[in-house]
Design goal:
Blueprint: H1 3-29, H2 36-44, H3 49-58, H4 62-78, H5 86-94, H6 98-116, H7 125-133, H8 137-154, H9 178-195, H10 201-214
Length: about 220
């Protein structure tokens, strides 16, 4: 093995190690308690699909893990489930053929979660699976993110809560207080500041707790 091959091997091992650490780091951050307002932040957050794809490429797939964790958490939040996603993310990357199962089942959960929140999103689970089989999984992820962005911009925040079930094609009429909307808006603004790197994770959690304590 010459010097170039050895360097490439070392680089590959380093990238894989960093990716694994990133996976477990995001897993540990996903252990926060799931509550109504935590769901609001998760579900109403949108992502720039083109930026996510570019970052996944330039970071040699590391950001793709972060992106995948985000999608898993959002689908779970839509269905009012625990935000602990470490297990399924590890299986997605390490267990052969699990990714095919993941695309199909999570595609269905995404559509079902949207219905639970009063929205009609097409069930594209079969299309996600076929794209993955034909080595176009990045397209599947982008389409899932597009559906999540659609949900984020159209969801009625009063429908976000634990075990909320809304019958399909049923119009939900709810009354939202000005104070509640103001607090939700503050949470969204804080989340945007955190994503932009203007405030730290610790500052975000502190401000979030202050807002939730006033509710």
């Amino acid at each position: 093995m010459d010097g170039i091959e050895r360097a490439v091997l070392i680089l590959a091992i380093a990238v894989n190690s960093i990716a694994t650490l990133a996976c477990f780091y995001t897993y540990n951050r996903a252990n926060a308690k799931l509550d109504k307002y935590g769901n609001i932040i998760e579900i109403t957050e949108t992502k720039n699909i083109a930026a996510c794809i570019i970052l996944s490429i330039v970071t040699f797939g590391i950001y793709n893990i972060v992106w995948m964790v985000s999608i898993c958490k959002k689908i779970r939040a839509l269905n009012d489930q625990s935000k602990k996603v470490g297990g399924e993310v590890v299986c997605f990357y390490l267990v052969p053929f699990y990714s095919f199962y993941w695309y199909y089942t999570r595609g269905k959960r995404l559509a079902e979660g949207a219905v639970n929140k009063g929205l009609n999103i097409s069930d594209n689970s079969t299309m996600y699976l076929l794209l993955a089989i034909f080595q176009l999984s990045i397209v599947s992820v982008a389409l899932m993110q597009n559906d999540l962005n659609t949900i984020a911009t159209n969801v009625d925040i009063s429908n976000i809560g634990e075990n909320t079930k809304v019958p399909k094609n049923t119009q939900v009429n709810t009354v939202k207080t000005d104070m509640g909307n103001a607090n939700v808006q503050k949470l969204k603004e804080l989340n945007e500041l955190k994503e932009q790197g203007i405030i730290s994770e610790e500052e975000f959690e502190t401000k979030k707790k202050e807002i939730l304590d006033r509710i």
